[in-house]
Amino acid sequence: MCHHGFKLLFKADRIRASARSLSRGQSFPTSGFSGQFLSNFGIVTSGEVLKMIAKMPNKSSPLDVLPTSLLKSCADIFSPITAHLSNLCFDQGQFPTKFKLAQVLPLLKKPGADRSFSYRPISNLSTISKLIERLVLSRLGSHLLSSGNFNSLQSAYWTRHSIYKSIYVCLFHYSQND
């Protein structure tokens, strides 16, 4: 192995050691779940749905029965209905089959690459499906963050956190050990 190969292996070992030192004091579950169980999602209010509708972008899905702009302009009428539908879904533990449908579109990843492997599927759900999904996420997210099973270095699907934060933390600790 050349000099550069040894140098690269040495750096990789130092990065691994740095990552291990970052995880000290973190509680990683080794067996089973710890914390409180999520027994219900709580009641969805029309006010909560109203706020979510206001934050939604104006794009509509081809699966929508009515355009998002109409939903937003009549949000005071549709929010109690959506809240009631969401509460039924949460209480019964079922998501209506109609809302499980999506329009799947292939999106080209890299132009010029081998086209047979360069597509990723994009699923367009109906606006109501997205609303209910966000209501679930708001409840599930707060439960996960409050449990002892969530790692503070987790970056995926966590608001205001990205892989860049994790990379920065690793690089910072790596530079401190030089």
Descriptors for this entry?
178 residues, mainly alpha, two-stranded antiparallel ribbon, 6 helices, 2 strands, extended, disordered N terminus
Plain-language structure description:
The protein is mainly α. It has two domains: 108 residues, no CATH class; 28 residues, no CATH class. 50% of the residues lie in helices and 7% in strands. The protein contains six helices and two strands. A two-stranded antiparallel sheet has the order 1-2. The radius of gyration is 23 Å and the shape is extended. The two termini are 24 Å apart.
Per-chain topology:
Layout: H1 3-23, H2 46-55, H3 68-73, H4 75-92, E1 103-108, E2 119-124, H5 127-146, H6 163-176
Helix pairs in contact: 1-6, 2-4
Order of helices and strands: HHHHEEHH
Radius of gyration: 23 Å
Quantity of strands, as a count: 2
Strand order of the largest sheet: 1-2
- What count of domains describes the coordinates? 2
Number of helices: 6
Separation of the first and last Cα atoms? 24 Å
Shape: extended
What can be said about the biggest beta sheet? Answer: 2 strands, antiparallel
- Quote the beta fraction: 5-15%
The share of residues in helices is: 40-55%
Q: Mean pLDDT across all residues, rounded?
A: 78
Helix-strand makeup class: mainly alpha
Short overview:
This protein is mainly α and 178 residues long. It is built from six helices and two strands.
